[in-house]
Amino acid sequence: MQWYVLQTRTGEEEKVKSLIRKIVPSHLYEECFVVYHEQLWRRKQQNFVHVKRAFPGYVFITSREPEALFFCLKQVPAMSKMMADEEFFFLTVEKEEAEFLKSIMNENHVICLSYLSTDGKGNIRQISGPLKVCASGIIRCRFGKRHVLVQLRLLGEEKTVLLGIVLDEDIRQELRYGKVEAPIEVPEEYRIPSVLGAEKITRRAEEQPMLFSGDSIVVTGGAFEGMPGMIYEVKNHKAKVGIHLFGQNMTIEMPMETLRKRG
Fold first, then answer.
1. Does the pTM exceed 0.85?
2. Is residue 177 within 8 Å of residue 192, measured between CB atoms?
3. Backbone angles phi, psi at 47, to 5 degrees
4. Neighbouring C-beta atoms of residue 174, cutoff 10 Å
5. What is the pLDDT of residues 97-120, one digit of tens each?
6. pLDDT at position 44, please?
7. Which residue pairs, CB below 8 angstroms and at least 24 apart, start in 247-250?
8. Got the DSSP string for 190-252?
9. What are the pLDDT digits (tens) for 2-43?
C-alpha cells in the first residue's frame, strides 16, 4: 500500500479529509488521515496536554490505485480549483518515510508524548515512547518548554518537527487535556502510557521517603552532587536547600528528585 500526501491550506486538513471520504469511492483508497502530535503546556502550575497538527497543510492517503484516485480528485470542483491555483498537490511518500511515521503514531494517527530522564545537568539518560525511534535526529532539547526538535526526512526533504516530552516531575502530577484539534474523544485526565516508564517512576517515588522542611539531605544530582544540606522550604516538587559552600551558607532551589534524606 503506497502512501501519498495531499497538500492543502493550513487549517483545512480535516475539511479535505471529510470531502474525500464523501466523494471518493472507498475502493480507491484504504486510509485518509491527518497526523497530530501531543504537546505539554505548563500554565499557572498546571500541566495540559494539547493535541495539534504535526504537519500543517498535509493530508495523508494510502492507495494501490493512485492514477484512478488522482483522476477522481480532479473531477471534484473544489479539488480542481485548488489544483489549478497550485495550492493542492499530490505527492508520493517514500516507503522508508511511511514506515517511520507508522512506527511513531498510534491507531488515531497521533504522535504521543515521549518520556525523557536526565542526569540533572541536561544530559539525557533514558528515552521512551515515539522519540526513541528518532533519537539520533534530535537537534535541540528545550526541557523547560517540554519539547525537542527532531530533524527527519519527509517527501524527499529534511524537515524539523517538534515532539512533546514529559519529565519525571510531570508524571508525578495530574495531567489534563487542553486544546484538542484532532477529531477524537479524550478523557478529562491524561493517562501516561506504561511504555513511558510511568510505573517505574511511580515505584521510585513510592520507595523514596518523603522530604520536608528541616530534613537533612544529600544532593544526588546536578552541580552540587554529594554535598550535604538542609531543606528550608518545599514547594511544587522543588526545595530550597541550605548548603555550606566556599565558607558561606547559601540557599539554592533544587528539584526534589535530586535530593536524598540523610540517616
1. no
2. no
3. -110, 135
4. 9
5. 999 999 999 999 999 999 888 777
6. 74
7. none
8. PPPPGGGTHHHHHHHHHHSPP--TT-EEEE-SSTTTT-EEEEEEEETTEEEEEEEETTEEEEE
9. 999 988 888 989 998 998 998 899 999 999 999 999 999 988
What is the Cα–Cα distance from 26 to 42, expressed in whole angstroms? 42
First to last CA, the chain: 62
Edge-to-edge strand order for the sheet containing 259-261? 248-255, 238-245, 228-235, 216-219, 259-261
Q: Which of 248, 246, 251, 213 is nearest to 232 (CA)?
A: 213
101 CB-near residues (< 8 Å, 6+ apart): 3, 35, 60, 93
